[in-house]
Amino acid sequence: MPPKSPLLRGEQKARFGRRDMLAGLAAAALLWPMNAARATEPVSIGLNPLFLDSDIQLLSLIQSYLAAQLGRTVQLIKRRTYQEITALLLSGQLDAAWVCDDPYVQHEDQLALLAVPLYRHEPLYQTYMIVSEGSKAQSFDDTRGTVHAFSDPDSTSGFLVTRSLLALRHTTPAQFFRTFFFTYGHRNVVRAVATGLAESGSIDGYVWDVMREREPELINKTRVVYTSEKLGFPPIVGLKSAQETTTAKAISAAFLQMPTDPLGRQILAILELDGFTTADPGLYQGTLEKWLLVKAQA
Amino acid sequence: MRVGARLANWPLAWKVPLLAAGLLIGVAFVISQTVLNRLESDQENNLRYLTSAYLDGLSTAVLRSAIHADVWETFDALDRARDRYAGLKVRFAIVALPNGKVLAASDPLKFPVQSAVPADVEGRFPTQDGLNIDTASGRAWLTRSLREEGYSVGRILAEIDISELLRVRKQVLLTLVAVNAGLALGFAIFGSLALRRMLKPLSVLSGYVERVRAGCADPIPESKRQRISREFDLLFDRFNAMARALNEREEFASRLADQEKYAVLGKLASGMAHEVNNPLGGLFNALDTLRRHGDDAEVREATLNLLERGLTHIRNVVRSTLVTYRRGGANNLLRPVDIDDLRLLIEPEASRKRLQIAWVNDLHGALPLVIESVRQVVLNLLINACAATPAGGTVHLRARATESALSIEVGDQGPGLPDDLAKYLIGHSDEAPGTGGGLGLWIVRRLVADEDGEIQVIQENGFSTVIKVTWPLRENLSRSDRAKDFVGMEAVHAE
C-alpha cells in the first residue's frame, strides 16, 4: 500500500484570495529590514524544459517580469533533466521551480504549491500518445512493438502516464516497445516522431496543442492516437520549509498577478495560458495514483 | 596509307593551318588535362579537409551520446550538423554501435534505430578511418571511429554528395574545350588566310608553269610581282630566265628545222638535177630525130611521145619539189598522189644504191591533214631508210587510212634503230639524240607532235626497223572546206 498522503484526501478547488495576497505583502513589508541583506542576492527560479525550451525571448521576458515584480535580480536556472531541477530545489539551492506534477507528487511532503497555471481556464492538462503521420496505429495498444520516444523519466505526460497504462497491462516499456529512448523535452518527442527516429511518443498535450499553431509543419507529421484523462497542470513549487518566507510569497504573488501586468500578459500570450491560480495538493490526485501504481509494479 | 596519300595531296594553304590547329589542340589537350588533374587533386584535398572538419565536429558532438547509447542526443547532433557545414552536402550520417547496429541516423526512416547497417551500405564505406570517392555515382563515403580511452564506442558513417564538385569539374572541362576549340578554329582560319596570301605568288608561278607545258613560255610580268616576298622575287627571276631560254631554244629549233629542210633540199637537188639531166640527153636526141626525120609521121609520133614522157617526168619531179618546199599557206587536204610524189624524190637516191622500193599506197580520196608536214615527215623517214638499207636491199612504204586517222609505215633493212633514238622518237625520252641520229628524227618527232600524231617503232619480218606514224584526221574541217581545198589543189596540179 502506498503511504498516506494529504493529496489522497481528494481534489480541491484551486483558489488564491486577495486577502492572502495582502497578508503576504504586509509580512514582506514587516520583514524588509531583516531581509535587506538577502535582498541583494538574486532570486533563483528553476525551470523544467516543459515546452519551447529554446525560446530565449520567453526566458528573457520571464526574467524581466519577475525581477520587476520582486524588485530583485532573478536567475532562471535550466537543466537538461527534471531530476536535476528537483535535486537543486530539494537541496535548497532554488527559491522556487516550475516542475512537472510527477516530481511534485513524489516529493509532496517537502514541496509547497506556490502557483498553478490556468490552461483553457482550468489548472489541468492531458497526456497524448502520438505516432508518425503515416503510421497505421489507431490506439494506444497499436503502438506495441514500435520505437518509442519518452520525454523524461520524471515527466508525467512524457513517461508516467504511458508507464502506468503499461502497468495496467502488466507489462513494461522494455517489453511493450521494440526499443525506447528519452529526448528530455516534449518538443524533442515531436521531432523524434516527425522525423521517423521514433514511431510513437508520449507527450504533454498542452505542448502539442501550442506547437500545432506555432509549428504546424512539424506537428502535421504526427497524429494523436491516445488522450489521457485530465491531470493537474505542472505547478510552481517551493520548499515547504520556506513556504512562509517573503521570497516565496513574493514569487507566488508575482505569478498570480501576471494577468494584471502588460509584460505578464505578453508572457501568458506566448505561453497560451490564461493566468495562475492557487491550488491544494488534491489537484494532483490522479498523478499520484499513477505514480503509486507504477511504483507498486516496480 | 590511302588517307595519308590523299592528305599529302592537300594544298599547303590547308595543310599548314590544319597542322597548326592540330598542334594547338594537342597542346590544349595537355594543358586541359593538367588543369583538370590539378583541379581534381585540389577538390579531393578540399573534400578531405572539409570532411575531416565535419567528422571532427561531429565526433566530438556524438562521442558522449555514443558512450551512453543516447539515441536522441546522437540524432540531435547528426540533425544539427546536417546544415552546419557549408560546401558539404551530407546525404546521410549514421552512428553505428560496435555491434553494427544503428544508434541513430540522420535519416531514421532509411536506417531505423537498433537496425543493422545494411550490408550493401556498409560495403561502400572504408573499413578503416578514411574516404572512398566514386565519381561515377557522385558520392563519397566517410568512416570515422569513435574511441574513448582506447576503446571503440562506435563509428560514424557518412555519405556525401559530391555531384557539385563534379559539376564544377565538368563546367571547367566544357569551358576549356570551348575556349580551346575557339582558339584552334581562330588560328586555323587566320593561318589559312595568311598562308593563302603568302602563297599567292606560288599560284601565279604555277599558272605560268602550266602555260609552259601548253607550249607558251611567257615571262611573269612586273604587274604580278608587286608586294611579294624576297624568296618569290628570286624564284620569279629564275622562272623568267628559264622562260627566256625556252623561247630562245624554240626559236633556234624552228630555224634549225628550216635549215634542215634546205639541207635535205640541197641533198636532193643533185639527185633531181641528175633526174632532169637523164631525160635531157634523150630529149635532145628526140629533137634531133624530129629535125631530121620529122616528115615521117610514124617517127614523128614516136619521137613526140618520147618527148612528152621525158618532159612529164621532169615536170613531176619539179612539181613534187615545189609542193614539198613551198613556203607559207598550209594546204589542208592530202591526196594519194601527194604521197606517191615522194617516190619520185627518193628514187634517185634509191637507184644510186640499187635499192628496191616496195610502195603500197592504199589511200583513196583526200584526207584533212597538213600536206607539208606529212610529206616532210615521210620524206625524212624514206631518206633515213635509204641511208640505213645496204646496197641491193629493199625500202618499203605502206599508207593506209581509217575513218579517223592516217597511218604510214616506212621500213628498212638496216642494222636497226638504236634504243636511245627509238625512245626519243616515240616520246619516251627527252634526251636529244646523239650523233648518227641526225636532225631528221628530231624534226620528225616535232612535226608529228605538232599535228597530235603518234610514232611507233616496230619490228617486222624481213625488215629490221619499221617506223609507223599515225596522224589523227583534223575534225574542224567541214566537208565543204575539204571539197574546196581539193578543187584548189587540183587547180595547182593542173598548172
How do you describe this structure in short?
The complex is a heterodimer of chains A (298) and B (495). Chain A has 298 residues and is of the alpha/beta class.
Uncertain stretches of chain B: 477-495
Of all protein chain pairs, which has the greatest interface, and how many residues does each chain bring to it?
A-B, 15 and 13 residues
> Using only CA atoms, what is the Rg of chain B?
51 Å
Largest beta sheet: strand ordering of chain A: 2-1-3-12-4-13
Please describe the biggest sheet of chain A, giving its number of strands, its sense, and whether it closes into a barrel.
6 strands, mixed
**How would you sum up the global shape of chain A?**
globular
- Molecular shape of chain B: rod-shaped
Strand percentage of chain A: 15-25%
Order of H and E elements of chain A: HHEHEHEHEEEEHHEHEHHEEEHHEH
What is the beta-strand fraction of chain B? 15-25%
> Please, what is the average pLDDT of chain B?
81
Q: How would you classify the helix and strand content of chain B by structural class?
A: alpha+beta
Q: What letter string, H or E per element, gives the SSE order of chain B?
A: HHHEEHEEEHHHHHEHEEHHEEH
- Mean pLDDT value of chain A: 86
Structural class of chain A: alpha/beta
Got a strand count of chain B?
A: 10
Q: Determine the fraction of residues in helical runs of chain A and give it as a percent range.
A: 40-55%
Annotate the secondary structure layout:
The complex is a heterodimer of chains A (about 300) and B (about 500).
Chain A: H1 18-31, H2 36-39, E1 43-47, H3 56-70, E2 74-78, H4 82-90, E3 96-98, H5 101-106, E4 111-118, E5 124-125, E6 127-132, E7 147-150, H6 156-168, H7 173-176, E8 179-182, H8 186-195, E9 200-204, H9 205-214, H10 216-219, E10 222-227, E11 231-232, E12 236-239, H11 246-256, H12 262-271, E13 275-277, H13 285-297
Parallel strand pairs in A: 1-2, 1-3, 7-8, 7-9
Antiparallel strand pairs in A: 3-12, 4-12, 4-13, 5-11, 6-9, 6-10
Chain B: H1 2-8, H2 12-67, H3 71-81, E1 89-96, E2 102-105, H4 119-124, E3 130-134, E4 139-148, E5 151-161, H5 163-198, H6 200-213, H7 230-293, H8 297-325, H9 336-352, E6 356-361, H10 371-388, E7 394-401, E8 405-412, H11 419-425, H12 438-450, E9 454-460, E10 463-472, H13 479-494
Parallel strand pairs in B: 6-7
Antiparallel strand pairs in B: 1-2, 1-5, 3-4, 4-5, 7-8, 8-10, 9-10
Helix pairs in contact in B: 2-3, 2-5, 6-7, 7-8, 7-9, 8-9, 9-10, 10-12
